[in-house]
Amino acid sequence: MKNIFLSALSVRVLLVSGCLFATAACNQSSPGGNGAETEAAAEEAGQELEPLTTENAVEVLTAYGQKHPDSLAVISTRHGDIKVRLYKDTPLHRANFVRLTKAGFYNEGEFYRVVKDFAIQGGDSDERKMSQGSYKIPQEFNPKHIHKRGALAMARYGDERNPDKESSSHNFYIVTGQPVDLDELRAIEAQHNMKYTPEQVQTYLEVGGEPGLDTEYTVFGEVVEGMDVVEKIEQEPVDASDWPRRIVQHTVKVVES
């Protein structure tokens, strides 16, 4: 089974002395003050959002999600647009994606890992200037949301470093995958101690995806338009590390609630 580990990003994300490096330096939060209150004050003043920390991330994202119920976004690339729907029953992941989108954070990102018949991974860039802070998002596994073709999910560090399977603060991926057979699904059910619904079984058999990632990574949305664009990105020539030889930059905008 392939994995969507942040360690696959090589120099793009490094864990050094307890700090998560998205570019060249560890992000520091502003001292003092309640996280949610500081966040609200910054937004009202029209300033850049405060970088989050492990200590305040859940509080800030919970408050932000209540204030911003947005659930549709468009990821734009040189190949075209991908419209995604964000699930409201994964509230921390939805709020985090909306928050970074509205701050313009994802407009400095790119699809930097492309694995044919598996997934395209984006959200980061070596050229990034904006800081989002050093934090992870608690996993929000939901049996309703599987890694079907077109699923939107968050990357994470591996189990040895991250036993609670917390998500990355910003690295996301879109599943491509292929149809799977019933024997494979039953083996995954046994391995992960889960049971697919008849509808989910049909989806994997007919549409495809990556069931081996279920219960391992948080799915928080899905593509509703633009899978043809995902397929074009999936066809990009890559190097030995699965990085596209030609940059596939992306911008993201919220289009409605």
What does this structure look like?
With 257 residues, the chain is of the alpha+beta class. 24% of the residues lie in helices and 23% in strands. It contains 6 helices and 12 strands. The chain has helices at 35-44, 57-67, 91-102, 182-192, 198-206, 227-234, and strands at 14-16, 19-21, 52-53, 72-77, 80-86, 109-115, 119-124, 133-134, 151-154, 172-175, 219-225, 248-256. The strands form 3 sheets. Strands 4-5-11-9-10-7-6-12 form an 8-stranded antiparallel beta barrel. Strands 1-2 form a two-stranded antiparallel ribbon. It has a two-stranded parallel ribbon with strand order 3-8. The longest helix has 12 residues, at 91-102. 39% of the residues are buried. Mean pLDDT is 85; it is low at 7-47. This is peptidylprolyl isomerase.
Keyword list:
23% strand; 257 residues; alpha+beta; peptidylprolyl isomerase; 12 strands; signal; EC 5.2.1.8; Cyclophilin-like_dom_sf
Low-confidence regions: 7-47
Strand content: 15-25%
Average pLDDT works out at 85
- Over all CA atoms, what is the radius of gyration? 18 Å
What is the N-to-C order of secondary-structure elements (H for helix, E for strand)? EEHEHEEHEEEEEHHEHE
| CA-based shape | globular
- Structural class, from helix and strand content? alpha+beta
Largest sheet: 8 strands, antiparallel, barrel
Give a count of the beta strands, DSSP E runs of length 2 or more: 12
How many helix segments? 6
User: Terminal Cα separation, in Å?
Assistant: 36 Å
Strand arrangement, largest sheet?
A: 4-5-11-9-10-7-6-12
What helical percentage do the residues reach? Answer: 10-25%
InterPro entries: Cyclophilin-like_dom_sf (IPR029000), Cyclophilin-type_PPIase_dom (IPR002130), Cyclophilin_A-like (IPR044666)
Pfam families: Pro_isomerase
Protein name: peptidylprolyl isomerase
Signal peptide: 1-24
